[in-house]
Design brief:
The chain has 340 residues and is an alpha/beta fold. Helices cover 31% and strands 23% of the residues. The chain contains 8 helices and 13 strands. Strand 5, helix 2 and strand 6 form a beta-alpha-beta unit. Helix 3 packs parallel to helix 5. The structure holds adenosine-2'-5'-diphosphate.
Length: 340
């Protein structure tokens, strides 16, 4: 079996750490693994498959040493280094929003549009979608294929790990301060209190009143499903949960689909686990089902009493795994299937 030398860019971060974990867990055929981060981390070590890797400086790394680069160090870092890596022959799987909307860059979820991955040859870059979009499209795909979808209305409940390792620390810190009766201060990461609160603000505000996180769900869902007619309306909310994003999804299908039919389609769909019993606890939640798992969990499947072709779903997944690192590693698996 061929082995591939892999560079993990952002290896000390929340998604980068999960990438290293998942490469080992899934026994990805690795040769050398390079853990890259900023100069700040140059003396650190990170875990990989029961060993430790010395973190190297991204700025000084020679990308001709790696065949695949898993990038998760923010858009600015990707904008600067991903084209350099691709020019050196390292195929980039980019987990930032830097290239997602470029027509020549495929935006891929393996369960949904694997056939588009070959388009990486244009720029040497494959884009990994936003965490909230990934779990949404995995759940939409079987319903979309069966009866078509006209409109999606979604409200998200996104965990702090989606904002990185420092945001995880900040939620823990604010929680401790508040429980001790101490005041908290706004920070760059959360401009208002996040502990015991819900913030309807993720990423930058746009001229149309939506946030960029919300617009990502619009642009990306249309691109991945290859349907610009699909209407998407999103409200993205940060909640004081450490791991796992939840979504209340309201669909308007093109043809009527009953809740039973939707449940059956979702049960057969790749990457989906249905937990839908009409009793207390008969539904998935971020902390109890999704965190540290691979599946996209779907529950609360019901027909919308306010619309003749409306369906409601509750969709939950681990944002660091399926929403980021796992999807990236699955893309690397798809890529090497095509290479071999
Ligand atoms: P570092 O730890 O050295 O700052 P998270 O999303 O959890 O905040 O993680 C971000 C990741 O991106 C970290 O591994 C961080 O490394 C890395 N990173 C941020 N800025 C840079 C940069 N300019 N060059 C290389 N890596 C960077």
């Amino acid at each position: 079996m061929n082995c591939y030398d892999i560079a993990v860019v952002g290896a000390t971060g929340a998604v980068g750490t999960a990438m290293l974990e998942i490469l080992a867990e899934r026994k990805f055929p690795v040769g050398n693994v390079y853990a890259l981060a900023s100069e700040r981390s140059a003396r650190k070590r990170v875990c990989f498959d029961n060993t430790e890797l010395q973190v190297e400086s991204l700025a000084r790394f020679d990308f001709s040493k790696a065949q695949i680069g898993l990038f998760s160090a923010g858009s600015k870092v990707s904008a600067e280094y991903a084209p350099q890596a691709a020019a050196a022959g390292c195929v980039v799987i980019d987990n930032t929003s830097c290239f997602r909307y470029e027509p020549a860059v495929p935006l891929v979820v393996p369960e949904v549009n694997p056939e588009t991955i070959g388009e990486y040859r244009h720029r040497g870059i494959i884009a990994n979608p936003n965490c909230s979009t990934i779990q949404l499209v995995v759940a939409l795909k079987p319903l979309y294929d069966a009866v078509g979808i006209e409109r999606v209305n979604v409200a998200t409940y996104q965990s702090v790990s989606g904002a990185g390792a420092r945001a995880i620390e900040e939620l823990a810190h604010q929680t401790m301060l508040l429980l001790n009766g101490d005041p908290i201060e706004a920070t760059a990461r959360f401009v208002k209190q996040i502990a015991f609160n819900a913030l309807p603000h993720i990423d930058e505000f746009q001229d149309n009143g939506y946030t960029r996180e919300e617009m990502k769900m619009v642009w990306e869902t249309q691109k991945i499903l290859g349907d610009e007619r699909l209407q998407v309306n999103a409200t993205a909310v940060r909640v004081p949960v450490f791991y796992g994003h939840s979504e209340a999804v309201h669909l308007e299908t093109r043809e009527k689909l009953t809740a039973d039919e939707a449940r059956t389609l979702l049960r057969r769909a790749p990457g989906v686990e249905v937990l839908d019993e009409r009793r207390p606890g008969g539904y998935p939640t971020a902390a109890t089902e999704a965190a540290h798992k691979d599946a996209v969990f779907v529950g609360r499947i019901r027909e919308d009493i306010s619309h003749p072709r409306g369906l409601d779903l509750w969709v939950v997944a681990d944002n660091l795994r399926k929403g980021g690192a796992l999807n990236s590693v699955q893309l690397a698996e798809l890529l090497i299937e095509q290479w071999c």
